[in-house]
Amino acid sequence: LGARLAAMTFDAVLSSPLQRAVCTAEIAGYVHPRLTPLLGEVDYGDYEGITSKEIRARNPDWQLYRDGCPGGETPEQIYTRATEFIRLCETIDGRVLAFGHGHILRAVAVAWVRLDITAAAGFQLDVATLNRLHDDPEHGRLIAMWNAPGEASLSRGGAGSRSCFAPRGAPRRPGRPRCRRRRDRCGARRG
Questions:
Q1: Are the C-beta atoms of residues 13 and 97 closer than 8 Å to each other?
Q2: What is the rounded average pLDDT of the residues 31-37?
Q3: Do the beta carbons of residue 24 and residue 128 sit within 8 Å?
């Protein structure tokens, strides 16, 4: 990830406060990202600590972006947080690099192009991939790159354009423990 980003400059680097996102930022060469809870993973509420398979055994038609999580965030709350993150980025003059988690980054993408939150279910997002949201003076808000693997090209965008690059770090899904009790390559405990 660091090699893919090394040739680029960013005016701000933001990260979820969760250690796996901060660790991903550190591994990529950004040791002091600005932490924002807006990039934190979705609050799974009563579904925290159980797998998606177990959730669907109880509720076969469950979809995060349609149903939310009992005792956790609703789809509307997830979308609001994604929109607030976009507003934060709009206060920064220039390129923003954001380190976050799969479900919130998918919500940011659909909020960026003003789709309904339920559309986020159709955005596959693999681990350690790059995504580029671009505000083009001619065409408006674009998803210029999504779920890009290591060999992806990161174009800089033209004059007057603004981009937000969002690498996805280590996965965290319902049913995964918050602390793995081992050390990551960056030396931080996974959380």
A1: yes
A2: 97
A3: yes
